[in-house]
Amino acid sequence: MASDAFLAMIAALRTCRACDDLPLGPRPVFQLSPTARLLITSQAPGTKAHLSGLPFDDPSGERLRDWLGLDRERFYDGSRVAILPTGLCYPGRQPKGGDAPPRPHCAPLWHPRVLPQMPAVRLRLLVGGYAVRLVLGRATRLEEAVRNHARHQPRHFPLPHPSWRTLVWEKRNPWFAAEVLPALKLAVAQALTE
Ligand code: SF4
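# iron/sulfur cluster complex -> structure
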């Protein structure tokens, strides 16, 4: 049962209007509960998630679920799995193509308010370079952090973003599937069951 403080925080987050220049307007996309044991800090929602309000309901989400060893039912069980992006609203497009970076003041504004209200979190997945640098430091190199994931456990597990671009990267880096993904599945299973 969520506390009044938790519900008030969720209500404030849903109505956040701190960014008044977002191309599609503010619509924070997240999945949070005070009982979640696995926390996924990702990048920022795309247009599909902006419209539906459901994070990772796309091929990237399918790939992420495959990496984690979770089916849709368990992934979207908000009582066990939380999703808190680095930037909670769709940030728009970059002039050269691709989505713009997460809004830089979103995580400093919201993460310190949200994280203390999630005391059951055992493992936080840092999905993509923005999340990795946010939590592990701006100088952190994504590939190095992923390769050395054991150094960041048991609290954090750095990962690349599961976009289609990562398929090419995975082919060039077979150690990811051979060594990192089995360790990831084990860490996720332990976080959800122990
Ligand atoms: S991106 Fe973050 S800070 Fe900006 S309106 Fe959305 S929730 Fe608020």
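# post-check
The mean pLDDT is 95.
Strands lie at 38-41, 81-83, 123-127, 156-159.
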